[in-house]
Every structure is written in C-alpha cells, then in structure tokens.
Amino acid sequence: MAYNLLKGKRGIIFGALDTNSIAWKVAEKAHEEGATFTLTNAPVALRMGTINELAEKTNSQVIPADATSLEDLENLINQSMEVLGGKLDFILHSIGMSPNVRKNRKYPDLNYDFYHKTVDVSAMSFHKVMQVSRKLDAISDWGSVLALTYIAAQRVFPYYGDMADAKSMLESIARSFGVVYGKEKKIRVNTISQSPTPTTAGTGVKGFNALLDYTDMISPLGNASAEDCANFCITMFSDLTRMITMQNIYHDGGYSTTGVSIEVMEKVLGKEV
C-alpha cells in the first residue's frame, strides 16, 4: 500500500545493481510513494548489473558516475537537477567495496593500495557527494541524505576486514557533515545500520551464510530484509522524520542490543538451557 510519502520529491539513488540490491528496493518503493529520481552507479557496475530494467520500471534516467570522482559527481548532480526539474530532496548512498575482502586479504596483512580504494569508494565518496551537493546548492531545505552502514563499524566480525574501518569513517562523516548541513539548510544526514543482507556484495564476504543464520537467531524480530530496509529509507526521506539527523540508526531486528539468545546458547552448548 502506498501513502504518497514522497509525492513531489526528487532524488538520486546510488548503488542499485540488481534485484538483490537494497538500493533497487528503495528505488521501487520511492517510485510507489510518488518520488522522481535518477539512478547512478559506476560504469563498471552498470555493465555487470541490470539497472536499465529498474530505470524502465520506475521511469528513471540512469546517469553513470564514479562516486570517487568530483567531476563525475558534479555532472551527475547537475544533470539530475536538469532532468528532474529542480533541487533534490533526498540522496541514498548505497556504495561499498573492498578489494582486500574480495581477494581474501586478512586484516593484519592488507594491501594498502586496496585499503585506500576501500576507504575512497565506501566512505570518502559519501563526503564527496555531500561536498559537491553543497557547493552546487543542490539539496532543498529539509532534505534527507542517507548512507547504508553495518554494525562492524562498532564490533569485530570475521572476514569483514577493512570494510569495518570504512563503515566507521562513513558514520563519522554523517555526523560531521550533519552539523554543517543542519545549521545551513536544515538538511538531515543519517546512516542506517542494516542487518546482514544477501546482496551481491554481501554474499561475497566469506562466511556470510553462517553470519546470516547467527544474527537471525540472535535478533528478537529476526533479520531485517532488503525490502524492510527500503521501507525505512522511505520514511527517512519523508517529512515524517524532519527532526532526525546525525544518527546511526540500527535496523536489525534488535540484534544490536541483544547480548545472546537462548537459541544460540543451546546451539553452542548442545543442550537445553
């Protein structure tokens, strides 16, 4: 059921690759709720995914952009405002990539060129998006900027490697830029810490399926799905959340505040507790 929560709002959605992407689900929901937006991803990702199908379904235009390139971002934002007919009301940053994780480099033995790439793509790009948007005065007053993160920014998880560092930086950027954007334009900047989600990127992390089962047993409500996350993103883009900014909001079925569950204890101990 749609509620027209985003009727008349314009935005940019970064990171939709295929139907498993959270960004893909957000685009579908945003379209249902009355928003117009452009879709973007890196040129190499566009060749791998099926984003044109999403563009057709949501009447959106795809604008390729490397989110680490200031020139690409300036072109993306200017072109988006031209296509959409005005300033933006929301931006979703759903970008993350680690060459070290892809190549199974353990955290104590990182390739530093890869490390720089991880941080640039997964965290610094968020700062670049907002810096360019601010210079172009591209976001309307009371707009909403969101980035997707993960609890590995606060806790250690096997095989997540340097992505944990990038997520920590991402959340810090949201707070630091949130102060500036809030005072200047009442624009709110937040991060959503989502449950492990079987996206193309997520399933590439070693041990992902075991982690998925574990967090589901810990979380009182179970893992939050990509569609659940999309619904929450829509709420954060809407006027219903105008006073929320600089927050890292856990959207994980209660996992982040649950120490351990009976199910996990019984699984580990092999007996009823």
Mean pLDDT value: 96
CATH class: Alpha Beta
Which secondary-structure class do the elements indicate? alpha/beta
Give me the CATH architecture, please: 3-Layer(aba) Sandwich
Number of domains: 1
Provide the CATH superfamily: NAD(P)-binding Rossmann-like Domain
Helix content: 40-55%
Descriptive key words:
273 residues; alpha/beta; 7 strands; 45% helix; seven-stranded parallel sheet; globular; 10 helices; Rossmann fold
Describe how the helices and strands are arranged:
Blueprint: E1 10-14, H1 22-32, E2 36-40, H2 43-48, H3 51-58, E3 61-62, H4 70-84, E4 88-93, H5 99-102, H6 112-135, E5 139-149, H7 163-185, E6 188-194, H8 208-218, H9 226-237, E7 248-251, H10 262-269
Parallel strand pairs: 1-2, 1-4, 2-3, 4-5, 5-6, 6-7
